Amino acid sequence: MPKKYIVRLSDAERDELRKVIKKLSGSSQKVRRAQILLKADANGSNWTRVF
């Protein structure tokens, strides 16, 4: 299945999303969306393990 949207995040955006996930700040929906954006990033590592 071809990708519908290509996400390209800057380093600053990636860092901000990682902070949200690490601190679990905001609602669970916000954290889940941050995880999805990091996973969909075309330039990133695609898998981050933050517990």
Report what the structure shows:
With 51 residues, this protein is mostly helical. Helix content is 51%, strand content 0%. The protein contains two helices and no strands. Helix 1 (11-23) packs antiparallel against helix 2. The longest helix is centred in the middle third of the chain and has 13 residues, at 11-23. The termini are far apart. The mean pLDDT is 83.
Question: Layout of SSEs?
Answer:
Blueprint: H1 11-23, H2 28-40
- Major sheet: none
Strand content: under 5%
C-alpha termini separation: 31 Å
Rg, nearest Å: 11 Å
Binned, the helix content reads 40-55%
Mean pLDDT figure: 83
Order of helices and strands: HH
Assembly state here?
Answer: single chain
Summarize the structure.
This protein has 51 residues and is mostly helical. The chain has two helices and no strands.
List keywords for this structure.
single chain; 51 residues; mainly alpha
